[in-house]
Design a protein that fits this description.
Distance between the termini: 99 Å
Mean pLDDT: 85
Structural class: alpha+beta
Number of domains: 3
CATH class of the largest domain: Alpha Beta
Low-confidence stretches: 31-62
Strand order of the largest sheet: 1-16-17-21-20-19-2
Largest sheet: 7 strands, antiparallel
CATH architecture of the largest domain: 3-Layer(aba) Sandwich
Shape: rod-shaped
């Protein structure tokens, strides 16, 4: 192009054009202090990077023009009019493809791992999970065994005795093995010849003989015969003696307890307690030692009304006497033969009943007493019951009232107290939530009387039992007269923990925590 407006074709031309414009601009600089600007010689071309030196500034007065240097302009050689400017489009209508906004990612993308590393990680994780699962599924349950807790032991108690008492005097009943006694009153009354039981038992403590033994021998002299007549003269019961013969301790005990002979009691204790005072003192100590504080003794035969006792204490005395085999043998004897004396009959009218086994009568001036014992069969258990009446107006009435009391107490003694089948005696729980009750497999019953009680004693052993109906122990019920035992069974299935419980409870399986 030849037009002056044609763009330069080389960098040199561009620089030349820039220098011309620079000189033109310098020529137009105004003068200072009234001076017109002097023409400025064209500057020689300089390198682009060299700075333009400032011309010296004239003094405050003079005719030299003041020239202000022009600051170098970057890229001044470019002709902005000759360079085209391309504007950005105002909208996206001319875009070659659809607009897709690109937003910054909220979470930076992870660097992608290689497939091999990913596979190794997965394999390791699967191996760990598989090993853990296998361990929890196969681990033993030693650390999570079911827990057995015993329940409050069931107790059975017999109701109080409700026998009817005699219209006259006092009465009491009891059962061997049961400590409690039922009595109509706590008042003391004269014992009469029942006192002889105490004398015989005291001798047995001092000079005991066993069943089949005769014991020491006493020579019988005329003075003994004289004592016999003296007893009869005073209206006391007495038994003849074989003067010139002998009587053994066993025979003297027979005469005292079977025939209720006062003179035989005297001969039995004379060498131990020669006076009534000595005997009474010894008797007090013996009674206290045997828990018979309700009895008072002043002499050995029972003729003195000072020998007294409440009815309940006489039941206790009867139990103590029947516990001595020799005494029990003698009081159960209906008739006996004593050498030199003959046959003697027992004063106890109730011995005609084969179930009655003793013990002793007493009578004092229209005041009749009877202490008796009877053996009663209840199923496979023999129960010994006792009854006593004191102060009956006639001998017949004392026998009838005593027999009636024996019947009533025997009926009460035959009533069993029962722990029913299915009674809960324990509970079993497991760590995995299963539980079950431990119950008696059958009824437990024992003989109890007059407020006596018995408590079941379970022996629980779960072992490997896990199913409903499995035996997990026994329970025993022991009364004073008999006892009973039955199995304890499990109700409900305990099973074993499922796979999920095992998987989620590793610490319990391991016994940790």
């Amino acid at each position: 192009m030849t037009s002056p407006d044609a763009p330069p074709t080389s960098r040199r031309e561009l620089r030349a054009q820039a220098e011309e414009r620079s000189r033109a601009d310098s020529a137009e600089i105004p003068t200072t202090a009234g001076h017109s600007a002097a023409p400025v010689a064209a500057a020689a071309p300089v390198a682009a990077a060299a700075p333009v030196a400032a011309a010296p500034v004239a003094a405050a007065s003079g005719d030299i023009p003041l020239v202000t240097p022009r600051r170098p302009v970057a890229l001044s050689w470019i002709d902005v009019d000759a360079v085209g400017v391309r504007r950005a489009p105002d909208d996206l209508s001319a875009a070659a493809s659809a607009y897709v906004p690109v937003l910054p990612e909220l979470v930076p993308r992870r660097r992608r791992r290689s497939p091999a590393g990913f596979i190794v990680t997965v394999v390791v994780l699967l191996a760990l999970v598989g090993g853990y699962t296998a361990a929890t599924q196969l681990w033993t349950l030693d650390n999570v065994t079911p827990v057995v807790d015993a329940a409050e032991a069931p107790t059975v108690t017999a109701p109080a005795s409700a026998v009817s008492w005699p219209a006259d005097g006092e009465g009491a009943v009891g059962i061997d093995g049961v400590e409690t006694v039922a009595a109509s009153s706590t008042d003391a009354d004269a014992m009469a010849s029942i006192t002889k039981l105490i004398a015989v038992l005291m001798v047995q403590d001092e000079k005991p003989i066993a069943v089949g033994e005769d014991g020491p021998v006493r020579d019988i002299v005329y003075a003994d015969r004289a004592d016999y007549w003296s007893f009869l003269g005073r209206g006391e019961s007495a038994l003849d003696v074989p003067v010139g013969g002998t009587l053994t301790q066993y025979q003297l005990m027979q005469g005292a307890l079977i025939a209720s002979a006062g003179n035989y009691v005297d001969m039995l204790i004379q060498d131990l307690w020669p006076t009534d005072e000595a005997f009474a003192s010894a008797a007090r100590g013996w009674l206290d030692a045997n828990g018979l504080q309700g009895i008072t003794v002043v002499e050995p035969t029972g003729i003195d009304e000072g020998n007294s006792a409440d009815a309940a204490s006489l039941i206790a005395l009867g139990k103590l006497a029947m516990a001595d085999p020799v005494v029990a043998e003698i009081v159960a004897t209906r008739t006996a033969q004593i050498d030199g004396v003959g046959e003697i009959d027992n004063t106890n009218p109730l011995l005609s009943d084969d179930t009655v086994v003793g013990i002793k009568t007493g009578g004092l001036f229209g005041h009749y007493n009877l202490l008796a014992a009877r053996d009663v069969a209840v199923d496979d258990t023999t129960v010994r019951v006792y009854a006593v009446v004191v102060g009956q107006p006639t001998e017949t009435l004392r026998a009838d009232e005593t027999a009636e009391l024996l019947d009533r107490v025997a009926e009460e003694a035959a009533v069993r107290q029962t722990v029913a089948a299915g009674t809960v005696v324990g509970e079993v729980t497991t760590a995995w939530g299963a539980s079950g009750e431990l119950v008696t497999a059958s009824d437990l019953s024992v003989l109890l009387w007059n407020g006596a009680s018995a408590t079941a004693e379970p022996q629980l052993e779960l072992g490997d039992a896990r199913d409903d109906g499995d035996t997990v122990g026994t329970v025993a019920l022991a009364g004073p007269l008999d006892d009973a035992t039955t199995d304890v069974t499990l109700t409900g299935d305990l099973g074993e923990p499922d796979a999920w419980w095992r998987f989620t409870h590793p610490l319990q399986l391991l016994g940790i925590g």
